[in-house]
Amino acid sequence: MLPPVHTVSVPMSLEEMFKKFENVFFTSDTHFGHARILELGRGRPFKNIQEHNEDIVRNWNAVVGVDDLVVHLGDVALGDRATTLAHLDRCLGYKVLVPGNHDSVSSLETNARRERFIPLYLEHFDEIWPEAVEDNGIVYSHYPPAEISDHTTEDRYPHLRPVDEGGTLFIHGHTHQEHVVTSLKTGSIAVSVGVDANGFTPVNFKSIIEIWEGRQHG
Predict the structure, then answer these.
(1) What is the CATH number of the domain that holds 108?
(2) How many whole angstroms separate alpha carbon 50 and alpha carbon 211?
(3) Inside any domain, residue 3
(4) Where are the beta strands (DSSP E) in the chain?
(5) Which structural domain, as residue segments, surrounds residue 51?
(6) Coil, strand or helix: which one is 130?
(7) Could you tell me which residues come within 8 angstroms of residue 95 by beta carbon, excluding any fewer than 6 positions away?
(8) Number of structural domains, the chain?
(9) Does residue 6 belong to any structural domain of this protein?
(10) pLDDT tens-digit map of 97-148
């Protein structure tokens, strides 16, 4: 299996990086251009994929400003990537990608395919980070830890799921779940920033930290 893609060096302290921005947001699983997402699983409440795409862009810009950071935890767009990734150009903020399984820069792809698509993704994202980033007790990844079920009947990508050793905040996507917070047996918690759980809108990092601190001191 190929190692996670690295196109930039992740800052030593994300906390310090985050302070440079007015606000920090997280989102995941936008699936721009993916018509079948409207029917898969629980589906999505849109008449067509055009309405779906427009709603996500509109909701994004309703909360994100030009001086904000948005970390997208993967599964950005499907179909013709040159067309579907372009929806990001209408989305405000400094944009960082942590790849998911449907992204053509994922480690699930061949080296040749990744190298071919990295320039295209960097036309629409300011940075691409590895598939799991850990900093100050927080893990940022498309994939949740193993205790959380996949959204299919198959337990996919076990090698990409972060290890839960307890006392950790996992910020993730992938599951298409409709609830935001999962309490784990180890005492860790997982917060889904996928659009299905959050009104198809990016989630402010401050609200995630409030959830974590509330669980720690509750």
Answers:
(1) 3.60.21.10
(2) 33
(3) no
(4) 24-27, 69-72, 94-97, 127-128, 132-135, 138-141, 169-172, 181-183, 189-192, 203-204
(5) 14-217
(6) coil
(7) 70, 72, 88, 124, 125, 126, 127
(8) 1
(9) no
(10) 999 999 999 999 999 999 999 999 999 999 999 999 999 899 999 999 999 9
Q: Residue 188: count other Cβ atoms within 10 Å of its Cβ.
A: 22
Report how far residue 209's alpha carbon sits from residue 202's, in angstroms, rounded to the nearest whole number: 15
Cα torsion angle, 32, 36, 41, 43, sign:
positive
Structure tokens belonging to residue 37: 């997402």
Residue 218 pLDDT: 57
Distance CA 183, CA 48 (A): 34
pLDDT tens digits, one per residue of 152-200 = 777 788 999 999 999 999 999 999 898 999 999 999 999 999 999 999 9
Task: Kindly state whether residue 1 falls inside one of the protein's structural domains.
Answer: no
Q: 128 with 99: CB under 8 angstroms?
A: yes
In a domain, 8, yes or no: no
Task: Reduce the secondary structure of 5-39 to three states and give it as a string.
Answer: CCCCCCCCCHHHHHCCCCCEEEEECCCECCHHHHC
